[in-house]
């Protein structure tokens, strides 16, 4: 039986992500911790990890929680996996069994890893105000020292004074420690010089987006999201489109309905502002976006039922949708639903 074309799919160019790894390594002169939490920001953690694991520039994968780490191990990922958000006490046996490396942020977790001799990284809070020690517990650390130490920049793309202060404070706090790995910089933090660190933690940059235009990197955008045209109708001037009748046709037009809605990650607030691509030209989304369907005004153009429009591509990135929504690309990426089939090139 022939395979039915998907109603919507997200095509991810894995070699483009690998090129971004090499670009970031060349710029930073440091190896990478590839952040693939939240299903690799929606891109598919298993596929991304399997493709990147052979790269010598990748020293760690980073996820948020134990569940994400187990999934990678069960799919055969061998490289070290950092648990950025630590672990709950009842997850300790799984941390040990699956050889996960927790980032430890409080004394309770620290005592557990010390007692069980579990390799760990220490999180120091230099200004994030979320997780981490305000000052390393130097005495406890002598019992079983951390393999790595880290801090987190809360505003690297907006407050260089604070970020540079964090870099200085962190250097002073870790001076008494002897650790193998030191990492501070996220993607936004790549604009700063941190010569005493030897790793960078990169998420957004892997996926071809920049948190700031000040980042002097040419990144490859690996994503295209397409949705099929379900129906096309020629409607007269004045016709009401979708719930609430928030849009009326200004002239007789072809209106296409695409199989993509807010259940697939298309925010309702994008009504009457988003444009989609069809055969290289753009056409506006009109009327309220609904759970499963979205209307597009094709004007005089009659599109073909069953063909695809592009919602995301190198000309309209996640960051472009984020600007329309006063949001951030991370949120747009991670909202793309499971009905949108992930397909991979490379």
Short description:
This protein is α/β, with parallel strands linked by helices and 346 residues long. 25% of the residues lie in helices and 24% in strands. The chain contains 10 helices and 16 strands.
Describe the structure.
With 346 residues, this protein is α/β, with parallel strands linked by helices. The chain folds into 2 domains: 14-207, Alpha-Beta Barrel (TIM Barrel), CATH 3.20.20.10; 223-345, Beta Barrel (Lyase, Ornithine Decarboxylase, Chain A, domain 1), CATH 2.40.37.10. Helix content is 25%, strand content 24%. It is built from 10 helices and 16 strands. It has helices at residues 14-28, 37-41, 45-52, 66-74, 92-97, 107-116, 138-141, 160-174, 318-325, 329-335; strands spanning 8-13, 31-35, 58-63, 81-83, 101-104, 121-123, 148-150, 181-183, 199-202, 223-235, 253-258, 275-278, 281-286, 294-299, 308-312, 341-345. Strands 1, 10, 11, 12, 13, 14, 15 and 16 form an 8-stranded mixed sheet that branches. Strands 8-7-6-5-4-3-2-9 form an 8-stranded parallel sheet. Helix 1 packs across helix 3 (45-52) and helix 9 (318-325) packs across helix 10. The mean pLDDT is 96.
What is the N-to-C order of secondary-structure elements (H for helix, E for strand)?
Answer: EHEHHEHEHEHEHEHEEEEEEEEHHE
Work out the helicity level.
25-40%
| Name of the CATH architecture of the largest domain | Alpha-Beta Barrel
Query: Roughly how many Å is the radius of gyration?
Result: 23 Å
What is the total domain count?
Answer: 2
Q: What layout of secondary structure does this protein have?
A:
Elements: E1 8-13, H1 14-28, E2 31-35, H2 37-41, H3 45-52, E3 58-63, H4 66-74, E4 81-83, H5 92-97, E5 101-104, H6 107-116, E6 121-123, H7 138-141, E7 148-150, H8 160-174, E8 181-183, E9 199-202, E10 223-235, E11 253-258, E12 275-278, E13 281-286, E14 294-299, E15 308-312, H9 318-325, H10 329-335, E16 341-345
Parallel strand pairs: 1-16, 2-3, 2-9, 3-4, 4-5, 5-6, 6-7, 7-8
Antiparallel strand pairs: 1-10, 10-11, 10-15, 11-14, 12-13, 13-14
Helix pairs in contact: 1-3, 9-10
